[in-house]
Specification:
- By secondary structure, the chain is α+β, with helices and mostly antiparallel strands.
- Helix content is 33%, strand content 21%.
- It is built from 12 helices and 18 strands.
- Strands 1-2-6-3-7-17 form a 6-stranded mixed beta sheet, sandwiched between helices. A 4-stranded antiparallel beta sheet has the order 11-13-9-14.
- A hairpin with a 6-residue loop joins strand 1 and strand 2.
- Helix 1 runs antiparallel to helix 3 and helix 3 crosses helix 12.
- The structure holds ligand BES and manganese (II) ion (2 copies).
- The site of ligand BES has 16 residues, from loops.
Length: 462
């Protein structure tokens, strides 16, 4: 394709500044205090799609936050690429751990990003990566190189479970009909090791509550004589893994897909340094399920993790008290073939069954979703692979990710199309953490690679 680099070069500053403006709006979907900002972000996405050359751009209202839709139909006989992304972001807390305010983007150089990285909540997940597609679209329309039809669907509830999008997809098969879905909301192995994400884990997220006595008690007067909900909760949680770090919930592994020796050997070829991994996290050892490597543990194996735990007295000083209640939020990452609703039920049954007498246990399911795997012989994968080969000078490595984008399996079920996950983030970009950032180099590499995907997909489709 002609002049991709030239167009990017000529518009570099504007491409960066537009993203910076978008990152200034705190579109935190989890916190209703930011409702206006989330809605304002949707408006901004709408006008950016219009400027990029999309037609029929609309803000589609839902029960929750709106979905921004836009399209450019060139010719009914050409293939259609549906781009998905999200404009909502995670809450920034703990805010005191940020080196600069999360919604005042700054570009700073780091060891991995000598060209600079944009520091802001949403820089990588997913405003920065989603905006690469908007700019790639602008580039293709401005240089008359859009080779096929395009549809954009950008939602504002991904970080809270995509409930409205699920309804929207079910109700709009025709409007969303496509030949391939393209998403940049994952990562790659390293700047010099391009990769394409071929799998995502499923998710089951639950909250548990343990209730003991009907009021907080003096820990001297009652201690030792009644069940302490915090002691009980932590004991119950500890029992969910055995000494080999296997999960103890009966039936949990029944449907887990076991990879063949060959597939595991293939996976092990991806470059990985345990030393660097440990160094980056300042840990002296990794920890996990016996019999699996670190990369296997965080991608092809299911997990159970406490995400938050609270109860009792946590203020200054000491208060001698046995709390009436204790709580925890627990996530289970699932692998293909595990059904998230079934796993949620297994968890609930088991957790209730291990509660000792003297406490009541309540399990409340939150959200969840199925895992996803995509083959590497589809034309979508081949097109992506060729695109990366052009811009990185290397064939990308297929890699399963440990993260989840639950809506992807719903896309396949409802729209009958495969999703190609072209992520340009790095694990060190600190998504969901303080000091989230996205490399300037990665941002422009994405904008450069995406148009080539369109080109190769259209060629291979014929
Ligand atoms: N973009 C992430 C998922 C992701 C990141 C996948 C990196 C692979 C590599 C997405 O925004 C996300 O955070 N998903 C949530 C699940 C969702 C239901 C809240 C997750 O994985 O925790
Ligand atoms: Mn995301
Ligand atoms: Mn996220």
């Amino acid at each position: 394709m002609q002049n991709i680099k030239k167009y990017i070069d000529q518009n570099k500053d504007r491409f960066l500044n537009e993203l910076i403006e978008l990152l200034k709006i705190p579109s935190i979907s989890a916190d209703s205090a930011y409702k206006k900002d989330v809605l304002k972000t949707a408006d901004e996405i709408k006008s950016s799609l219009e400027k990029a050359g999309c037609e029929n751009v609309e803000i589609c209202q839902t029960k929750g936050y709106p979905i921004v839709f836009g399209e450019k139909i060139m010719d009914k006989n050409l293939p259609t690429v549906l781009v998905y992304g999200h404009y909502d972001v995670q809450p920034p807390d703990p805010i005191n751990l940020w080196d600069s305010p999360p919604f005042e983007p700054v570009i700073k150089k780091t060891e991995l990003h000598p060209e600079g990285a944009i520091f802001a909540r949403g820089a990588c997940d997913d405003k920065g990566q989603m905006y690469m597609h908007v700019k790639a679209m602008e580039l293709m329309t401005q240089t008359n190189q859009l080779p096929c039809n395009v549809k954009f669907m950008i939602e504002g509830e991904e970080e809270v479970g995509s409930a409205s999008l699920a309804d929207f997809v079910k109700e709009n098969h025709e409007k969303l009909s496509n030949d391939v879905i393209l998403i940049s909301d994952t990562g790659m192995i390293a700047k010099e090791v391009p990769s394409i994400t071929t799998g995502l884990r499923g998710l089951s997220y639950v909250e548990v509550e343990v209730t003991g006595p009907n009021r907080d008690l003096h820990s001297g007067l009652y201690g030792g004589a009644v069940a302490n909900p915090i002691n009980i909760l932590t004991k119950m949680i500890a029992s969910l893994h055995d000494k080999n770090n296997h999960i103890t919930i009966p039936g949990f592994y029944d449907k887990v897909e076991e990879l063949s020796k060959e597939e595991r050997a293939e996976m092990a070829k991806a470059p990985f340094s345990l030393e660097n991994y440990q160094k980056a996290l300042d840990i002296d050892a990794v920890y996990g399920e016996d019999g699996y490597t670190t990369n296997e543990r965080n991608s092809i194996r299911p997990t159970l993790d406490v995400n938050g735990i609270w109860g009792g007295y946590t203020g200054e000083g000491a208060k001698t008290v046995i709390a009436s209640q204790a709580f925890a939020k627990i996530s289970m990452r699932l692998v293909p073939n595990q059904d998230w609703e079934e796993i949620t039920q297994l968890f609930k049954n088991h957790f209730e069954s291990i509660a000792p007498k003297g406490v009541k246990v309540k399990v409340t399911p939150h959200h969840g979703g199925q895992g996803y795997v995509t083959p590497i012989d589809s034309i979508g994968y081949k097109a992506a692979s060729k695109a990366y080969a052009d811009t990185f000078g290397k064939t990308p490595i297929p890699q399963r990710s440990g993260g989840s984008i639950p809506i992807v399996s719903l896309f396949e079920k409802e729209l009958k199309s495969k999703t190609i996950l072209m992520g340009f983030g790095l694990d060190s970009d600190a998504i969901h953490s303080p000091n989230e950032h996205f490399g300037v180099w990665n941002y422009f590499k994405g904008i450069e690679t995406i148009p080539l995907f369109y080109k190769y997909f259209t060629e291979l489709y014929k």
